[in-house]
Amino acid sequence: MKYVVTGAAGNISSILVRRLLLEGHQVHVIGRNAGRMQELTRLGAKAITGSLEDRTFVVSAFRGADAAYCMYPTDLQSDSLTEYAARIAQNYAAAIQENKIRYVVNLSSIGAHLATNAGPVCGMNRAETILNALPDVNIVHLRPGFFHTNLFGSIGLIKASGIMGNCFALPMGRFPVAHRADIAAVAADHLLKLQFKGHQVQYVVSEETGTDEIATQLGEAISMPHLKWVKLTGEQMLFALLNAGFSQRVAEEHVELFSAIDSELISEQYWQSRPIQFGTVTMRDFAKEFAMVYQSN
Ligand SMILES: NC(=O)c1ccc[n+]([C@@H]2O[C@H](COP(=O)([O-])OP(=O)(O)OC[C@H]3O[C@@H](n4cnc5c(N)ncnc54)[C@H](OP(=O)(O)O)[C@@H]3O)[C@@H](O)[C@H]2O)c1
Q: Which residue, 145, 153, 253, 263, could crosslink 119 as a Cys pair with Cβ 3.0–4.6 Å?
């Protein structure tokens, strides 16, 4: 089987590619930087270098694939992440159609049922809609919860102020989070079996936790057992994101997303169709990864 995997050196794609190669398949990986794909090419992947923003490039990079893994990178300086994702989805749609690809695993997000009020996640709603308009293509839209890796973004705040937080806070059991290894495992299973038909939506969640528990578990791993999750205001969060180099619109989109997490708007449909099976990576497992990054940072 020949697969094309976008976002090759990324969190999820890099794990997915290794699994597909391990099973003896041909894997073409797409990224802008050949150096970052070197580890995968050493393992047998073929690197195709170029930007997903370039439709002609994407159409040619998808040539000959039996199935595709589509993801949407984040461009923090873009005019809008929603529009950015929609443009990339249009490029994927052209590439899938012109190359007659019948199977697509699409990395979407929890909350992708929302066309408005969910910040960048509205881009996933647009992307799902664009791909669903393709005739005769079997698509599974993976809708993972909040990534563990986002929590690396708290390291600066912990080191500077001894707290972690965001402009949302959720009680124990109400915060669905997803580890990249669990997401990659679900994507790999679909790509290896190719048994999905029509348009499917699948939520991918490792654990339903809470923000106080996250602070306690990560705090214990970095010898700060009293670490607290502090709920910031939307203004404070906007200020922090602008300082971190986000464009004004992308920062505003993130604050909108965080308030949709806080109100649980983002997870309303998830609670009606929870996954029967959860992933295997817990926040305690991730805390070890977190501690290593924290110490080397
Ligand atoms: N964060 C969350 O909580 C969350 C939750 C649900 C869903 N999601 C979805 O998951 C996505 C991120 O997935 P991930 O963490 O696996 O990815 P990631 O680690 O952010 O990786 C992005 C990859 O895409 C490549 N890339 C970036 N811009 C590109 C471009 N214009 N053309 C070609 N390649 C490009 C990058 O490599 P180069 O720089 O070398 O090109 C990088 O390897 C988000 O964008 C969102 O759609 C996120």
A: 253
Mean pLDDT across the stretch 281-285? Answer: 97
Report H helices in 133-210. 155-161, 180-193
Q: How many whole angstroms separate alpha carbon 31 and alpha carbon 49?
A: 5
Q: What is the pLDDT of residues 2-26, one digit of tens each?
A: 999 999 999 999 999 999 999 999 9
Work out whether strand 138-144 and strand 199-204 pair parallel, antiparallel, or are unpaired.
Answer: parallel
Rounded Cα gap, residues 292 and 194, in angstroms: 37
For residue 240, how many C-alpha atoms fall within 13 Å in the half-sphere facing its CB? Answer: 17
Q: What's the rounded Cα separation, in Å, for the pair 116 and 156?
A: 31
Q: Which residue of 52, 83, 177, 267 sits with most ligand 1 atoms within 8 Å of its CB, as the best mutation to test the pocket?
A: 52
- Kindly report the pTM of this predicted structure: 0.98
Closest C-alpha to 21, from 236, 228, 238, 192: 192
- Pocket flag, ligand 1, residue 49 (CB < 6 Å): no
CA 102 to chain centre: 23
